[in-house]
Amino acid sequence: MAEPPLLGLTGIRYHLGDQTILDGVELSIAPGERLSLVGRNGAGKSTLLRILAGAPIADAGTRFAQPGATVATLPQEPDFAGHATVAHYVASALTDSLGPSDYRVTALLTELKLDGAREPQGLSGGEARRAALARALVAEPDVLLLDEPTNHLDLPTIEWLEEKLGSWRGAYVLVSHDRRFLANLTRAVLWLDRGIVRRLDKGYAEFDTWSSDILEREATERHKLDRLIERETEWAGKSIRARRTRNEGRLRALGELRKQRRQQIGPVGRATIETGTAEQSGSLAITARNVSKSYGERTIVRDFSTRIFRKDRIGLIGPNGAGKTTLLRMLIGELEPDTGSVKLGANLMPVVIDQRRTALDPDKTPWEILADRNDHVLVRGQQRHVMTYLREYLFRDEQARQPVRTLSGGERNRLLLAKALAAPSNLIVLDEPTNDLDADTLDLLQEALDDYDGTVLLVSHDRDFLDRLVTSTIALEGDGNATEYAGGYTDYLAQRGPRETLVAVPVAKKDKLVAQRESAPAKQRLGYKRERALAELPKKIDALHAEMAALNEALADAGLYGRDPKAFATKTARLGAAQAELDAAETEWLELEMLKEELGG
Fold first, then answer.
1. 245-255, pLDDT tens digit by residue?
2. CA torsion sign, 400 to 401 to 404 to 405?
3. 188 contacts: CB under 8 Å, gap ≥ 6
4. What is the pLDDT of residues 53-83, one digit of tens each?
5. Are strands 188-193 and 196-200 parallel, antiparallel or unpaired?
6. CB-hemisphere CA count at 13 Å for 471?
């Protein structure tokens, strides 16, 4: 017998002005379900998540929640108001919390490499997202509602989150533009389209085929209805007897057909994305020779060289803080390297789309952003009416005069693309362009960049987008080394080999180890003690992981502190000590591995 749902919605309706966002939505979430919620930007996915979470904003319909079921949400924009530290913010999700020093808070912040004593208002975009994730996960709720959880996260953190959700015991609903993330984690799809929710009880990998079949059937049905209306209209106009009483039923039927066609909402259009190409650059767009950059004692990039040709599509990947944007700015001439040189090709005309959306004034309207006080905008050398151009990017007429701050994240990104891609260029530089974009717009962006006659430099954490677009990948692992690999992200993984431990080591520690490696004597053996330590350390690391898992399980007992405060304190102290031992063991293992590699062993 199937378990009753944890959450359910019946007949949910929601309107925004005269626009119907949700039109009688029906859905349920059973224990342990892994669901993706997909739909175009502006379809109402975030609104639907808010209603599932209990926000009383629906115009009609009912929400059911299983008594005692706990629900946690990850909003696109976390609210840190009233929280003095990151630890306070995370602990606020716990009803039985011991405060910011709660072991559950400490454990999650350690995993996510966040300092709980920091003020949340000073966090970067990636750090704020990790803090919000910690708050959503810390109480282990029965249902997780995650709105764009991978935005601003680097690849190691995305992979950490995949592992976390892969073993999650509760249910979750994911809204994400990251196809690879959805395909890896979800087992059913909720498709929000034109106000209703359809369900596919298969993984996300089957969604494109399934949704395309539905749209094709709808198009066929609309065509048949149009032909029937055409025939009946012709009959009504030609037949004198159509006016007689006995034919009034047929006329009424024709009226109903027309009403049905008016009410039938066709699939929403797709954005039209084209790039404006300027005069061709030289065949060699960028040449970098032995470039290095450091800030203080921290090495960002060390001795990196590359040649980038016209029509190359180059992806830059790496952990947050590894130096991707720094290297990108050096490659396009915005930042001088400490050593080495960068030479730009002839006639290079770059257009830059940054992840901070600095080109968008939140108090201006899309019309003003594109055309200031004019009615027309210059698009690829031709005058276009600003409204016509906005419609190509799926903006409704009324949105043209609304402030940018009222737009969703995806709509802001579309506006940024519209502004940047209208300008002529032969080099497009995109820093995290895929954040908040729906799958259709991502497809069109990829197609536009594929057809672009210039060069593309792209910083992204979207593995699927990288695999489908880039010709080579520059990987920064966080240790100052930048290495170029042929192909996309999957090709990079195959060529790089397993080095997950390296990614997790802090940058400062890696720099120290690299310096030690470079100063090591050449052509000497590792030695018996070091060889033995290298063989034994993985066992010690595994044992520490197992011990910490057991301690976490024991401390998860909510009644332990009340029964035995001394045991609680002892286990908490041991957990901290074990974490320190684990860090030391992993560092020692890494040092020995790097030394062995250097000695050719």
1. 445 555 555 55
2. negative
3. 33, 34, 35, 36, 199, 200, 201, 202, 203
4. 999 999 999 999 999 999 999 988 888 988 9
5. antiparallel
6. 13
How many angstroms separate the Cα of 508 from the Cα of each of 297, 475, 532? 8, 18, 27
- The answer to whether the CB of 489 falls within 8 A of the CB of 315 is yes
CA separation, residue 403 to residues 106, 122, 363, 397 (Å): 40, 26, 5, 13
Residue owning tokens 């949910």: 12
- The answer to whether 35 and 173 have CB atoms below 8 angstroms apart is yes
Give the C-alpha separation, 576 to 582, whole Å. Answer: 10
How far is residue 597's CA from residue 517's CA, in Å, rounded to a whole number?
A: 9
Domains and their CATH numbers in the chain: 7-209 (3.40.50.300), 276-363+403-503 (3.40.50.300), 520-598 (1.10.287.380)
pLDDT below 70 — which residues of the chain?
1-2, 97, 223, 225-226, 228-282, 355-359, 380, 497-528, 558, 583, 586-587, 589-591, 593-601
Q: Which residues contact 343 (CB under 8 A, 6 or more apart)?
A: 286, 287, 288, 289
Strand partners, 424: 276
Which among 313, 354, 317, 324 has a CA at the least distance from the CA of 155?
A: 317
Q: What is the pLDDT of residues 491-523, one digit of tens each?
A: 888 888 665 433 333 434 434 444 444 444 444
Cβ contact 501:590 at 8 Å: yes
Question: Which residues have C-beta within 8 Å of that of residue 558, sequence separation ≥ 6?
Answer: 96
β-pair partners for 309:
284
How far is 94 from 72, CA to CA, in rounded Å?
11
CB 23 within 8 A of CB 195: yes
CA dihedral angle for residue 467, residue 470, residue 471, residue 474, rounded to 10 degrees:
-100
Q: Which residues pair with 12 in a beta bridge?
A: 25
Query: Distance between CA atoms of 186 and 165, rounded to whole angstroms?
Result: 10
Instruction: Count CA within 13 A, CB hemisphere, residue 148.
Output: 23
Looking at residue 481, its amino acid is: N
Contact between residue 45 and residue 39 where contact means Cβ atoms under 8 Å apart = yes
Whether residue 83 contacts residue 89, with contact meaning beta carbons closer than 8 Å, is answered with yes
Q: Which run of H or E residues covers position 26? A: strand 19-29
Determine the residue type at 11.
Answer: G
420 by Cβ neighbours in 10 Å (0-12 / 13-18 / 19+) ranks as buried
Q: Residue-wise over 127-158: b if at least 16 C-beta within 10 A, else e?
A: bbbbbbbbbbbbbebbbbbbbbbbbbbbbbbb
